[in-house]
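In the current project phase, our protein records have gained a structure token line. A sample record follows, to show the layout:
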Amino acid sequence: MRDITVVLLCAGSASRFKKRVKKQWLRIGHKPLWQKVEDDFKAYGFRDIIIVANKKDFNYMQKLTNSKVIIGGNTRQESLKNALDFVQSQRVLVSDAARCCFDGAMMDRILSAKGDCIVPALSISDTVYYDGTPIEREKLKIIQTPQLSYTALLQKALQSDTQYTDDSSAMYAMGANVVFVEGSAKAHKLTHIEDITKLECLQPPSSRVMTGIGFDTHSFEVGKKMVLCGVEIESEVGFKAHSDGDVAIHAIIDALLGACGMGDIGELYPDSDEEFQGVDSKILLADTISRIYSCGFEMKNLDITIIAQKPKLKEYKPKMQKVLQEITGCEFINIKATTTEGMGYIGRCEGVAAQAVATVGFYRWDKE
């Protein structure tokens, strides 16, 4: 194994990608793009890899990898500075997850070169103008990653108020020896959705469908508003809960998270957090939908069973379905209501339960 730590930057918002899914979460087979890149570095012989995650993705990323995952900052530079605090090797190789096609020959050139910062770069073959004036294209280079630097020097270079777009710019500004090696057309950066056509290493997402089951129950509380599936129900009692107690939506959230392997509602929205005191569960469902879509999933269908001796829910079901369709964007939603025939705590009219089954698939970026 090489005594070099790889830092893989995956914390960006992918705003230029302009899709509900963040580009680092596009599925390659069943794996997210960032994990495909991680696997490529591991296969080449790098053992120590630090994954820099967006705060919202942090817990989920930890479930998918044995590499160290840390939370990034608001900028690329902040994210890299955070990561360098955990690097113990003398040299560090920094790459963007968006450089997703690994080129072993280019990597050999990087590791063989000598200098404070080794940078892969491409020459420009087209005529170039700057501010209306042609300039010498021979002097221009398109900079790529990964870039190899001495860890201590890179840490020092980043202690600046100037925001640099890559490591080499910061190293050059402090007077370090920046050395260029031949880059690779394979290392094209995924920035916009149309860039996918230039990335031959990407296999289409799996057609696999995943299923999750959710369950929740709450006892009644006198004087509290009752809400089910985001719809207010005429009742003298509501639910005893940290939030509004919408057991149906809570079951739906757990079903969706289960299908995606993203944990459960208590991990994302703990009842120990004052932020969620009395919160409208529709807000939590909307946030869950945003999370699963941003991580490369698409909701396929949803089936909900509400188990209640009272109140009677038949007249509310059409409105419930409409509310859930508006929040989730999913057309295929079914709602059922049943009783326990007078048995148990539900039959004694002490509370209500709900069960949900959700199916999800991967976002089909290959169909764009």
About this structure: The longest strand covers residues 209-222. Residues 123 and 141 are 5 Å apart (CA to CA). The chain has two domains: 4-198, 209-367. The mean pLDDT is 94.
